[in-house]
């Protein structure tokens, strides 16, 4: 079951930072990590799959930490939105250096750096073979980049939301702390919500459920997994209505 149009949701740590697998723990945005990620996207592009990306900003700044320290929540979230723009530009450049045309569209207006998010323009870019990177979250505080990914995937008519992580799916409890944690091969959106499973935040899962958008949670750091997920192979955890 191959895909024609997908949206890939990445955490900021996919581009580096101390917690990223294989990272030297140095720069928040590691050029080598950006290149490795871009190379995986090149493989997907070679399949003829229209691809969009939403990336978080946690490798640079976590708005939640600032909010908990007393920073106004809206301001903290705006800081996080700007971090996602930096990441999107880094990944865009890495892709362009590998010969893939890209466009960065930001929900936060900054016309000298990125296009504004315009749904039909984004879809046209994808039809022309460009990888579109959606930055700035939803453009609103109090919404995560998970919610932005669910929203954009729905808007552009993606067939699946690919949730890339550093573990190989969804578990009933933290597999790092519990050796006997059970991995689910498949779940429904309702099961994820009712059991409070750590897939994406509840707002994102609810939006996917309402629009019957499947979610595939998989380990991005296992070579070849992104292409396997795009091909609809059995890996990680699939969440369907």
| Cα gyration radius (Å) | 17 Å
Structural class: alpha/beta
Seen as an oligomer or otherwise, the chain set is single chain
Compute the number of strand runs. Answer: 11
Taken together, the total number of domains comes to 1
In DSSP terms, counting alpha (H) and pi (I) runs of 4 or more, how many helices?
8
Q: Which superfamily, in CATH terms, is the homologous superfamily?
A: Acetylglutamate kinase-like
Strand order, sheet with most strands: 4-3-5-2-1-6-10-11-9
Mean pLDDT: 91
- How does the major sheet shape up? 9 strands, mixed
> pLDDT below 50 for ≥5 consecutive residues: which ranges?
none
Termini separation comes to 17 Å
Q: Globular, elongated, flat, extended or rod-shaped: what is the shape?
A: globular
Helix and strand succession?
EHEHHEEHEHEEEEHHEHE
Helix fraction bin:
25-40%
The CATH architecture would be: 3-Layer(aba) Sandwich
How do the strands and helices of this protein lay out in sequence?
Layout: E1 5-10, H1 31-46, E2 50-55, H2 63-68, H3 73-97, E3 102-106, E4 115-116, H4 119-127, E5 131-135, H5 145-156, E6 160-165, E7 170-171, E8 183-184, E9 186-188, H6 189-195, H7 202-210, E10 215-219, H8 225-230, E11 237-240
Parallel strand pairs: 1-2, 1-6, 2-5, 3-4, 3-5, 6-10, 9-11
Antiparallel strand pairs: 7-8, 10-11
């Amino acid at each position: 079951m191959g895909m024609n149009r997908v949206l890939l949701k990445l955490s900021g740590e996919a581009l580096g930072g101390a917690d990223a697998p294989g990272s030297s723990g140095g720069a928040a945005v590691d050029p080598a990590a950006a290149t490795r990620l871009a190379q995986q996207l090149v493989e997907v592009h070679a399949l003829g799959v229209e691809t969009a990306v939403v990336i978080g900003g946690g490798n640079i700044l976590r708005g939640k930490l600032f909010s908990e320290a007393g920073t106004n929540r809206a301001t903290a979230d705006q800081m996080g939105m700007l971090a996602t723009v930096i990441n999107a530009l880094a990944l865009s450049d890495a892709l362009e250096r590998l010969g893939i045309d890209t466009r960065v569209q930001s929900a936060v207006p900054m016309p000298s750096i990125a296009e504004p998010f315009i749904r039909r323009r984004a879809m046209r870019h994808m039809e022309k073979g460009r990888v579109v990177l959606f930055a700035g979250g939803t453009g609103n505080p109090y919404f995560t980049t998970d919610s932005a990914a669910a929203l954009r995937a729905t808007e552009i008519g993606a067939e699946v939301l690919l949730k890339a992580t550093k573990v190989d799916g969804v578990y009933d409890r933290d597999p790092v702390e519990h050796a006997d944690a059970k991995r689910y091969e498949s779940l429904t959106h309702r099961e994820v919500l009712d059991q409070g499973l750590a897939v994406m935040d509840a707002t994102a899962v609810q939006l996917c459920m309402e629009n019957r958008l499947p979610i595939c949670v998989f380990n991005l750091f296992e070579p070849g997994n992104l292409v396997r997920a795009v091909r609809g192979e059995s890996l990680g955890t699939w969440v369907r209505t």
